[in-house]
Amino acid sequence: MQNFDVIVVGGGPAGYNSAEYAAHHGKKVLLVEKKSLGGTCLNVGCIPTKTFLYAGKMYHYASGAGEAYGVTAEGPVHVDQAAVVEKKDEVVKMLVQGVGSALRRSKVKVVNGTAKLGRLDGKPVVFVGEETYTAENLILATGSTPTVPPIEGVKEGMADGTVMTSDEILDMKEIPKKLLVVGGGVIGFEMAAYFQEVGAKVTVIEMLDKVLGGNDREVSGLLQKELEKKGVTFQLSSRVKKLAGGVVTYEKDGRLQLAAYDKALMCVGRRANSQIEGLEELGVQTERGAIVTDEHMQTNVPHVYAIGDVNGKVMLAHVGYREGEVAVNHILGEDDAMSYDAISGVVYTSPEAAFVGLSEEQAKASGRNYEVKKVSINFSGRHVAENGLSNGICKLIVDKNKETLIGAALMSSYASEYIYALALMIDLQLPLRQVRRTIFPHPTVCEIIREALMN
């Protein structure tokens, strides 16, 4: 039996970051991972999809978009999807090795295998194979997996390879002629954008009356129009009933309609990996499949924490990073608590969209005294220089009583890179009069924040 201060189960972003963080603060740490370090984000999520999208962007410019700037390519331009997948695998391998190296430098012990939980002499116990490990504190970071909806034909399609989740599509080495995407959330949206760009005919079916979930309706709608210009077909307020023989049957406006596909991608959400052997014996509370935690990321069982996707709060890698730090700080006895008021989300299409804080709809529903400050992205000289005139916007939601920012939504180039400035304003509740006096670098796209505030 080996004893540790902290045992972390799960080597995704939340898990490996919390393990490193605890080790840097003098704790003896064990990390248990049953598959590959890096979790969903690094292996089949954030990083692989960005590799795809970057390939799509290069193809876009090489195949004619660069002509407006006097740049042309001789001869036919095509995408070798197998080579894109190979590059994706290369990037993933390099970054996974980097995570492993960082853990070794931090003196975190890493064990590969499936963890079984228990308790011995009042302490959490983790069994991995024939080995037994104990610790004062246990951090569960087992992540999530794609939801496979109980739609007729999906099970059969997954067996024959015509139906995939976001995991499998990243290994697909051919570009389908017709791609069906079921679900208009961020993952489905990004994959629709990539495959339409490189030659597929994409149809997106979404059961809600808007894309991108609970994000700002106006900006979500603008981004949808950008993809429609490129040829993506959206069927909103529609429910898939059946997939069979390369034909999807879906219901829209009370009528059944049909659409053809070669491959179908299921992007209808993710479920927490809370089916951990021994979790019930520990007495850890779950709700709708996710582990319940408090503001310190502690479960109802003292010294047992749950971070990242497994707690079902906000399934984003950067949220898991912060949750892990909060959990470790609680273990260290430091005063810290998790806040979800300034969580940024990004859609890495071209143009990008980014969101933080309250949407206009949420602000209205909250009953706050708010106002919207909005300006066209065409007020940014750099954006126009690089993209020409476009329909992008910078939209800020301001608390009129406090004169502070409570939400923002962007559609522009580099939105992913300057949404952090808006998140910081929300998190620190900076007075807007102070932000207005801040000097923004010129020419940058982030200057649009000042334009919106001065509007």
Query: Which of globular, elongated, flat, extended, rod-shaped describes the shape?
Result: globular
> What quaternary form is this?
single chain
Poorly predicted regions are none
Instruction: Calculate the mean pLDDT score and round it.
Output: 97
Helix proportion: 25-40%
Relative strand content = 25-35%
Instruction: Quote the distance from N terminus to C terminus.
Output: 65 Å
Largest sheet: 7 strands, mixed
Radius of gyration: 23 Å
Total helix count? 14
Class based on secondary structure composition and strand pairing: alpha/beta
Number of strands: 24
Explain briefly what this protein structure is:
This protein has 455 residues and is of the alpha/beta class.
Could you please describe the fold and organization of this structure?
The chain has 455 residues and is of the alpha/beta class. The protein is built from 14 helices and 24 strands. It has helices at residues 13-24, 39-44, 46-62, 81-105, 154-160, 186-197, 217-229, 279-282, 317-332, 360-366, 381-387, 415-428, 432-436, 447-454, and strands spanning 2-9, 29-33, 109-112, 115-120, 123-128, 131-140, 144-146, 163-165, 178-182, 201-205, 233-235, 238-244, 247-252, 255-260, 263-266, 270-272, 286-287, 290-291, 304-306, 344-347, 352-357, 370-376, 393-399, 404-412. A hairpin with a 2-residue loop joins strand 17 and strand 18 (290-291). It is globular and about 70 Å long.
